[in-house]
Design brief:
Length: 170
């Protein structure tokens, strides 16, 4: 299609198809309840990456020759941009995601058992998509939370233990 001057039609059709598919994924993620929300988000992210890899393999000629010449977004960046805008920036997903991540971080800091793999996968996704935003939105809050919990723990430990036990704990 690219060689026969139908590259623009192929590219715009791909954008439309990916957009529709991602809207369906977003609805599925939004419908997930409780802890299955992060699991569903992670599963859909992995599915999207696999599909994006397949699309890039199939349309590699277009990605190498057509897209640079007409100054369009390369397929990988296009897939990431659409995922970010359609899925992550859905109001129902965005706020639940940050709330749940900070909740997991809080639980982890207080010694509760959490699913570290799902948290690692979601944070990797966020770092891959927009590392600056991840740092601003999550990591700073996580550090403040950790500092607050550590300070409370140390104050509680000082009140109930002698100096030797406190120094061992510190």
């Amino acid at each position: 299609m690219v060689d026969n001057k139908f590259g623009d039609r192929l590219y715009s059709g791909l954008v439309a198809t990916m957009t529709a598919h991602l809207k369906g994924m977003a609805k599925s993620i939004e419908a997930a309840q409780g802890t299955s929300f992060l699991e569903e988000l992670n599963r859909k992210w992995n599915d999207h990456n696999k599909a994006l890899h397949g699309i890039r393999c199939i349309l590699s000629h277009m990605d190498r020759s057509y897209i640079p010449n007409i100054v369009k977004i390369p397929l990988r960046q296009l897939g990431l941009k659409l995922w970010s805008h359609i899925v992550l920036h859905s109001v129902q997903i965005w706020f639940r995601l940050w709330h749940m991540l900070l909740g997991l971080a809080r639980s982890d800091c207080t010694g509760e058992v959490i699913d570290r793999e799902i948290m690692r996968n979601i944070t990797k996704m966020l770092m891959n998509l927009f590392s600056y935003l991840y740092y601003q939105e999550f990591q700073l809050h996580y550090r403040r939370l950790s500092d607050d919990i550590s300070q409370l723990d140390s104050q509680r430990f000082i009140k109930c233990c002698d100096i030797d036990d406190y120094l061992k704990q510190a």
